[in-house]
Design goal:
binds copper (II) ion; alpha/beta; single chain; 140 residues; 2 helices; Immunoglobulin-like
């Protein structure tokens, strides 16, 4: 009896911790699906059909996909598919200056020439306030 009384709150507590994490994942998936729809509207084809580049969209304070893995030599093109908000790309581990502010439909490209551990990159105006942060892993 007394055991049950103590076990129950522990179960509730673990649910309370788990639910926000799941909600955040679903939120990202929904935002990224919408970003892809906007990409198709803007450019007339899916982002995966760009030749010679891998596309990351920037939308509603997220990079899509948030975590990217590409082989060495890949050129990544970050494309702003937002309506009004501008973003930037800071590849701090690559030692390159922050990109220009990218307005809707504008893009920034970078070619990854060195394989390595996953690296975090940032959106200058939004990484701190909105956690607009992505990762890229460059594989050999
Ligand atoms: Cu941003």
């Amino acid at each position: 009896m007394s055991l049950n009384r103590f076990r129950f709150p522990a179960v509730l507590l673990s649910l309370m911790i788990a639910i926000p994490a799941v909600a955040a994942d679903e939120d990202t998936a929904a935002v990224c699906a919408e970003a892809e729809e906007r990409y198709v509207d803007m450019f007339g084809h899916p982002s995966s059909q760009e030749e010679g580049v891998t596309v990351v969209t920037m939308y509603k304070y997220k990079f899509c996909p948030e975590d990217l893995s590409v082989p060495v030599g890949t050129t990544v093109r970050w494309v702003n598919v937002d309506k009004r908000t501008s973003h930037s790309v800071i590849l701090k581990d690559e030692g390159v200056p922050e990109s220009d502010r990218l307005f809707p439909e504008e893009a920034f490209e970078f070619t990854f020439l060195t394989a390595g551990d996953p690296q975090t990159y940032l959106c200058g105006p939004h990484w701190e306030t909105q956690e607009m942060i992505g990762t890229v892993t460059v594989t050999p």
